[in-house]
């Protein structure tokens, strides 16, 4: 690689990926997740973490092999993030233990006190069976609940991860709905391009499978209720899809200025070539019916990468398995890729690991990089009844292919649309 090739066509530092870490319901680490994905195995199962009687949806892609105490979203999210970061930093071989030479950008779920803790507070503050402010003040004065103060504050996960790995500067926590993980990567890319740092630790993590989340998404009619065969419930782009399945996990990427990475002898696993985003104020949960924001986000990512639609070999779809999202994503992709869309393989990892929410964009970026490295496109399982309204080349079984560039889409509630272009070589 020449000195000139360390910069892109716009003269910005190239952003290389030197470390990848993964935790999904399929397993811990790149190897376990990748083997299961390409084998078409599902990590979705009946929920065992809490009682599900009375819930419309009783399945999820929970990570049950990394327990925490208490089993609440912040603690689970921290555990998943730390596990993924350890793998990514070890692979990158960067810095010293506890002394990462760059900033932390981490996507975390919205944080609020969960039902068991609310109930305990209410019981402690009850007076004659009624919860009063004075009672809550007396309960707080006992100091029994002090640990919950830090646990349920937005930013705590980032602070603890920053302390553990010794990242530099103020850690950045963000939550842009289902595009959060991709946004964390985008922030790291932009910081390196601006020359503010030569390395960044970018993480997306989510451990928010709990009764309240299931009920809230059910009230939006967003979740699949096909509980009888859990592994068959998530079926992106299929005619008989009925909603997404919640999932958990994390992914961590070590990003570096390519020149700095090469100078220290790091193995470059791929590049983040382009990032595109477009806000959509149309509705809290629905996409704009003309697909304009999705189309704009895809085009912005391609333009930022300096490639046209013909330069993309496969698409890692947002592909949630909800009736509207899959239709709108297909519409957006067809508008950008035109007649070529029928020949561009597209696949959704969510068919196997569920929708990991704030972690999804990072997990799918990691899987996109593994797709490039291994030359194998993971399948979209359960694609048995194609939707005639979505004429895409959906990869129903793992497919060997020469993959140099992947478009990874992330479209979140509230119109948070973020797309990434990952590549094996500079554009």
TrEMBL record:
GO terms for cellular component: cytosol. PROSITE patterns: KS3_1, KS3_2. GO terms for molecular function: 3-oxoacyl-[acyl-carrier-protein] synthase activity. Pathway: Lipid metabolism; fatty acid biosynthesis. GO terms for biological process: fatty acid biosynthetic process. Keywords: Transferase. Residues 12-424 form the Ketosynthase family 3 (KS3) domain. Pfam families: ketoacyl-synt, Ketoacyl-synt_C. Belongs to the thiolase-like superfamily. Beta-ketoacyl-ACP synthases family. This is Beta-ketoacyl-ACP synthase. The lineage of its organism: Bacteria, Pseudomonadati, Pseudomonadota, Alphaproteobacteria, Hyphomicrobiales.
């Amino acid at each position: 690689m020449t000195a000139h090739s360390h910069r892109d066509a716009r003269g910005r530092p190239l952003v290389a990926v030197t470390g990848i870490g993964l935790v999904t319901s399929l397993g811990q680490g790149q190897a376990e997740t990748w083997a299961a994905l390409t084998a078409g195995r599902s990590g979705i199962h009946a929920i065992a973490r809490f009682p599900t009687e009375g819930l419309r949806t009783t399945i999820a892609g929970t990570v049950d092999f990394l327990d925490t105490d208490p089993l609440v979203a912040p603690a689970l999210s921290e555990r998943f993030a730390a596990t993924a970061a350890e793998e990514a930093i070890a692979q990158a071989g960067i810095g010293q233990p506890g002394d990462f030479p760059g900033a932390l950008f981490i996507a975390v779920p919205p944080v609020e006190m969960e039902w068991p803790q609310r109930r305990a507070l209410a019981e402690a503050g009850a007076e004659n069976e009624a919860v009063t402010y004075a009672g809550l003040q007396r309960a707080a004065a006992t100091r029994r609940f002090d640990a919950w103060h830090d646990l349920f504050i937005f930013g705590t996960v980032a602070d603890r991860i920053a302390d553990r790995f010794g990242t530099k500067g103020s850690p950045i926590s963000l939550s842009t709905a289902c595009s959060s993980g991709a946004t964390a990567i985008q922030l790291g890319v932009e910081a390196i391009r601006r020359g503010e740092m030569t390395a960044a630790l970018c993480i997306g993590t989510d451990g928010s499978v709990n009764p309240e989340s299931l009920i809230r998404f059910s009230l939006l009619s967003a979740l699949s209720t096909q509980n009888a065969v859990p592994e068959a419930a998530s079926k992106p782009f299929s005619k008989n899809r009925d909603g997404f399945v919640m999932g958990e996990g994390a992914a961590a990427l070590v990003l570096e200025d390519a020149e700095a990475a090469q100078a220290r002898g790091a193995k470059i696993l791929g590049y983040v070539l382009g990032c595109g985003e477009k806000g959509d104020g149309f509705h809290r949960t629905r996409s704009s019916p003309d697909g304009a924001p999705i189309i704009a986000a895809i085009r912005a990512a391609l333009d930022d990468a300096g490639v046209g639609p013909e330069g993309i070999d496969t698409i890692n779809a947002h592909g949630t398995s909800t009736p509207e999202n899959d239709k709108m994503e297909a519409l957006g992709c067809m508008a950008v890729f035109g007649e070529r869309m029928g020949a561009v393989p597209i696949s959704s990892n969510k068919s196997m690991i569920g929708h990991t929410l704030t972690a999804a964009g990072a997990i799918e970026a990691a899987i996109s990089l593994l797709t490039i490295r291994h030359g194998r496109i993971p399948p979209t399982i359960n694609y048995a009844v194609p939707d005639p309204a979505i004429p895409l080349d959906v990869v129903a079984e793992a497919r060997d292919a020469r993959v140099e560039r992947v478009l990874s889409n992330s479209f979140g509630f509230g119109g948070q649309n973020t797309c990434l272009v990952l590549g094996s070589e500079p554009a």
